[in-house]
Amino acid sequence: MSNPKLHLLALVLILAGCAAPSGTRSSPKPGSGIVEYREITRQGHRAVSATVDALEALTPSNPALADFDRALSQLELTSVKVRARAEAIMARGQAYFDEWKEQLAGITNQTTARTETERYGRLFEHFEHVRQRSGEVREQFRPLMAGLREFRARLDQRPNELSRNELDTLIASGRGVLRALESVSAGLDAAEAELHASMKGKSP
Amino acid sequence: MKLNVFAALLLFFSFTPGAWTQYPGAALTGPTPGASLRNAAAATQTQAAMVRKTAYDWGRRANSGAYRPEYFQQDYANLQWQFQSLRMQFNQMGSIALQLGRPRADNAVAELDAGLNVIAELFTFLEQQYQAGALDRATVARTCDVFQDAMREWERELKRSSARMGFVW
């Protein structure tokens, strides 16, 4: 095979083989998991907030369901993502932190071992906070969704039996979820600040 | 044909994300673990689309005035069967991802697994309404819509998670 064109073709084929997607592994952008969870949490907050607003607008004399249906439909979708994330972080526990830790290890600035250990400790504290609050999201979201679905189904059959007490219970449940989501979001903000500070080589 | 039997089957096929480490290893179907994972993910994606289509078909029938309560059990069983098949495909994919031993992949699998658990709550809701004699066509049609949308979102998450799991579609 002395033809230079064949050599070139062989080289191209070898390189193409190396670039094949099998098992391709992209390196994570530092903090991407944290930023993504925070964005999902914010979407969840907006969806719960819209549902609570729609519940507050419902009255026995004016069971205007269009806004409520729109809000609930959006919440159904968003809640899957938020609850799945909260559930996973709870179920995997400290093992979930390994991904956050990888992101910390991806930061290449020069640091002493002591600084590195301190950063690790601070990030782990933020993680633990987020994990605990994620547990609250998990605990409170499920009964809210079950209550909303039952409430909506009952309205189809008995639209004139809109109970103020039931509405108030659902609104209170929604506000509980909102508080839990705010707490998770604050924890994620702190974790992201920690990572950014690490990239700049100083404490947040 | 009791719904309780289906509920028991669902529980049998369901498991929490924490159980991933106890799941038996899946056979590799490709020349490399990455290729096997991609094959398993493609099969999971295909089955997820099947679940979504089944929910769509059921919702369309339930919207028709000719839909009768006795059709419910058959349609419920059909959708649940498709969902259980998705579970099995997903379990296969999750087991392969676990073998790679990457925290990012394990977290992605745990999130997708939890997403399926959340979606499966719609079965519980339908069953409770049915047992209480409170299920009507409108509720079935609305729940089918939610099911479809939730599955579409789950499929997006599956595609999005491919980089974390270590493969490209």
Structural class of chain B: mainly alpha
Number of strands of chain A: 0
- Average predicted local confidence, pLDDT of chain A: 82
Number of helices of chain B: 6
Number of helices of chain A: 6
Distance N to C terminus of chain B: 40 Å
Low-confidence stretches of chain A: 8-25
What does this molecule look like?
The complex is a heterodimer of chains A (204) and B (169). Chain A has 204 residues and is mainly alpha-helical. Chain A has one domain. Chain A is 80% helix and 0% strand. Chain A is elongated and about 70 Å long. Chain B is an all-alpha fold and 169 residues long. In chain B, 76% of the residues lie in helices and 0% in strands. Chain B has helices at residues 3-13, 33-63, 71-99, 103-131, 137-160, 162-165. The termini of chain B are far apart. At the A-B interface, helix 3, helix 4 and helix 5 of A face helix 2, helix 4 and helix 5 of B.
Concise structural overview:
With 204 residues, chain A is mostly helical. Chain A has six helices and no strands.
Please outline the helices and strands:
The complex is a heterodimer of chains A (204) and B (169).
Chain A: H1 4-18, H2 32-57, H3 65-92, H4 94-105, H5 113-157, H6 164-200
Helix pairs in contact in A: 2-3, 2-6, 3-4, 3-5, 4-5, 5-6
Chain B: H1 3-13, H2 33-63, H3 71-99, H4 103-131, H5 137-160, H6 162-165
